[in-house]
Every structure is written in C-alpha cells, then in structure tokens.
Design brief:
Layout lengths: L5 E5 L9 H13 L4 E5 L2 H10 L4 E4 L16 H6 L4 E4 L2 H7 L3 H13 L3 E6 L3 H5 L3 H12 L3 H4 L7 E5 L13 H19 L7 E5 L7 H5 L6 E4 L6 H11 L5
Parallel strand pairs: 1-2, 1-8, 2-3, 3-4, 4-5, 5-6, 6-7, 7-8
The structure holds 1,3-dihydroxyacetonephosphate.
Length: 255
C-alpha cells in the first residue's frame, strides 16, 4: 500500500549485534501499527541478521554501488543487498555526498542499480544552511531531484511505491533544529512539482519523507504537514524507546 506513511530509521554507522534486541522491539511495535510502513537501515554488517530476524519492518542499506559486480574493493552491489534479503536502499544521503563526494549523477546511477536489483530506493536531497540563507533552498533541492531521479523507464515502478524521496535539510541533521512547518510544506510541494514534471502521473505516487532531527516530540506536527509522506529518522531511531513513538505518531490508531 504505497499510501501508508513510511517511517524509516537510518542507523548510520551505529549498531552491532548487541543492538539486535532494539530492532526486534521496533519490529514488534511495527506489527501493532499496520497502517504504517516501517523500515530500518542498519550498517551493512547487520543487514543479513535483521532480514532474518524481522518480520514486519522493511530492512534497507544505506548505500550501494552503481555497478552490478567487479573490482570495487569495499563496495557492495545492489544485487548483493537483495541477496541478503534487503528491501530498499538509501542513496544520496548528504553524509555520503559530503564524506564521499557523491554527485547527483552517481546518486542517479545507484538508484537505477538498486531498482534493477528489485530494491526500493530512498533518494535523499537537501540544502545547506548557506544555501537556505542565500534564498537558494528550493532551487538547489529541485536541481538535486531533477538530476538524481532514475530515468523515466524505471519510473513506471514509482507507481508501485518503490521510489521515495527524502527531504533532509543538511542543517537540520543531528542538530535539533527543524524547519518551520511552512518551509517543510513549501519544499515538499516544490519536490512534488519536479517529480510530476519528470515522471508524470507516477510522480504523484512517490512518497516524500522529511528527515532531520525528527523525534517523539515533533513527529506528529511534522507528519501532519501536507505533502509529508513519512520520516527518515537518524538518532531517534537507534532505540525502540525513541523510535516507536514516531511510528505511533504516524498511525491513525495512535492511542
Ligand atoms: P537525525 O534524525 O539524527 O537528525 O538524522 C537525520 C538523518 O540524516 C536521517 O537520514
């Protein structure tokens, strides 16, 4: 059901086997909120364990290589992730773009590789504080969307809900700062316009997630913003105590 809100935990470079009980607890909670899609993206080392252990939450990776195989020491192909049982891949996270110099063209190639391997994708975009202060936020993010999206042929699969975009303002990640709800709404509308321009009808089916300092205290307000189809959560997704209230906030059955 593509229209269910999607609440995804990006564990970044956190998590070892001792963390598995947290993932199990999140999975049990996911079962209690069937109107919410839940995902966890652990480090590569835990993808296989999580796919074995979780029965309700999707399991994803945080990156993949654009090539299907070959001499790329230290990299992981999308088909390997599919083989490990993964459901989706996050591509183009701002930490990949800044730590590894990933370009929009590389992000697009990775997204296409992931989809060719049968995986869902979460394509991340977002402006820096300097870009926002300079009044360039929508232009920067729109250009990222245009250049990072898979080609239109693959986009037909967007209609199946396998393509997601995450708007993550760089300055909101890990800082405790979040944009105003008005700014979130405006940016999500700008992203939707680019998606429809690029993909036509299928662009309306792409979920647009918000990410950046989402927590139990602000999730309900952010998720209620028109156009927000879910959340990509970093720090607050590392424990069930932090993450489950965000899942609950996305549910109509929240009690
Ligand atoms: P935080 O929720 O820790 O701000 O991280 C957001 C993020 O980068 C998710 O991909």
């Amino acid at each position: 059901m593509p229209n269910r809100p999607y609440i995804v935990g990006n564990w970044k470079m956190n998590g070892v086997r001792a963390t598995l009980p947290e993932a199990r607890a999140i999975d049990r909670a996911a079962a209690r909120y069937p109107d919410v899609s839940v995902g966890i993206a652990p480090p590569f080392t835990l993808v296989s364990s999580l796919t074995d252990e979780l029965s309700h939450a999707d399991v994803g990776a945080q990156d993949c290589h654009a090539e299907a195989r070959g001499a790329h020491t230290g990299d992981i192909a999308a088909a390997m992730l599919a083989d490990a049982g993964a459901d989706f891949v996050i591509v183009g996270h701002s930490e990949r773009r800044s730590d590894h110099g990933e370009t929009d063209a590389q992000v697009k190639a990775k997204a296409e590789a992931a989809m060719a391997a049968g995986l869902g994708v979460i394509i991340c975009v977002g402006e820096t504080l300097e870009q926002r202060d300079a009044g360039q936020a929508e232009a920067v993010v729109s250009a990222q969307v245009d250049a990072s999206l898979p080609d239109a042929g693959l986009a037909a699969e967007s209609a199946q809900g396998r393509v997601n975009v995450a708007y993550e303002p760089v300055w909101a990640i890990g800082t405790g700062r979040v944009p105003s709800t008005g700014d979130v709404e405006a940016m999500h509308a700008a992203i939707r316009a680019r998606l429809v321009a690029a993909l036509g009808e299928a662009g309306k089916k792409v979920r647009i997630l918000y990410g950046g300092s989402v927590n139990a205290g602000n999730a309900a307000e952010l998720l209620a913003v028109p156009g927000v189809g879910g959340a990509l959560v970093g720090g607050a997704s590392l424990t069930a105590e932090g993450f489950v209230p965000i899942i609950a906030a996305a549910s109509r059955n929240d009690d």
